[in-house]
Design goal:
Distance between the termini: 51 Å
Structural class: alpha+beta
Strand content: 15-25%
Strand order of the largest sheet: 5-4-3-8-7-6
Length: 264
């Protein structure tokens, strides 16, 4: 085995480590050293450095390594500048059309982060959650985004298991895997009382490579599974419109950058 790593070899081994951990739930130092053909001490040093920067983390119980938050963020593809400003008119329009609360969310590690929302004007309504963080598996928007990830990565996010907010919350990783498979197949996610028992929601991802999703939420006195699914065409159309506006904004950014370079 190689006893040390040169600069270029270190980069190569670091990238291979990321790929290996993405393909497995977790790995022992000895497993990684064998795959990389380096000494155990070298593999441990490599993992230590990657851990300092958040690219890997070690489970305190099993001592196995898995992908860290920084590595997961590398897989998130931004969909352009000023997402909230671009999306807000579409949220407003959809909320007015449906009479329900609409939210824009992103996946931040294992949590759903609510970026923006427009609240329903109905007397009985679901409040917006802008700025809130909720376990992603409890939300429609979060599950729509988790479904885009390899399940090995999802399992790493919830290595300690799933805490249940309500009796309707996904109970374990096996059931979550099935739920996310259904989400990928049908193109939308549902939350049927999984964070708050009286709240139902539908969520779709914004764009084919996006890291954001759009959700519509309402009280279970007005919405059930069948009624939520009937909203899909209008929710999907709004999500597609946001993605289109973001692509156009990104193209404008590139055009402006090229023009500035030409004047220099």
């Amino acid at each position: 085995m190689s006893k040390d790593l040169g600069t270029s070899d270190t980069v190569s081994k670091t990238l291979r480590t990321l790929l290996l951990l993405a393909a497995h739930d977790s790995m022992r130092v000895t497993d990684l050293s064998r795959e990389l053909d380096v000494a155990v001490s070298t593999a441990h040093r490599l993992l230590h450095i990657m851990g300092l920067h958040g690219f890997v983390e070690q489970d305190a119980g099993s001592r196995r390594y898995r992908l860290g938050a920084a590595a997961l963020k590398l897989g998130r593809r931004p969909i352009g500048r000023n997402l909230v400003a671009t999306a807000h008119p579409h949220l407003q329009r959809l909320s007015t059309e449906l009479g329900e609360t609409v939210n824009l969310v992103v996946l931040d590690g294992s949590e759903t982060l609510f970026l923006d929302g427009v609240e329903s004007r109905q007397l009985v309504r679901v409040a917006t959650r802008t700025g809130a963080r909720i376990p992603a598996y409890e939300t429609a928007g979060g599950k729509a985004l988790l479904a885009r990830l390899p399940f090995a990565v999802v399992r790493g996010l919830y290595a300690e298991g799933l805490a249940r907010a309500t009796r309707f919350t996904v109970p374990d990783l096996a059931e979550l895997e099935l739920d996310l498979a259904r989400t990928r197949e049908r193109g939308y996610a549902l939350n049927l009382g999984e964070h708050m028992p009286e709240v139902c929601a539908i969520g779709v991802a914004v764009g084919s490579g996006a890291d954001a999703s759009l959700t519509v939420a309402g009280p279970n006195t007005r919405w059930d599974r069948d009624r939520l699914v009937k909203l899909l065409p209008r929710v999907q159309a709004a999500a597609d419109a946001i993605a289109l506006d973001q692509r156009e904004a990104a193209a404008l950014d590139e055009s402006e950058a090229a023009a500035l370079e030409g004047r220099e």
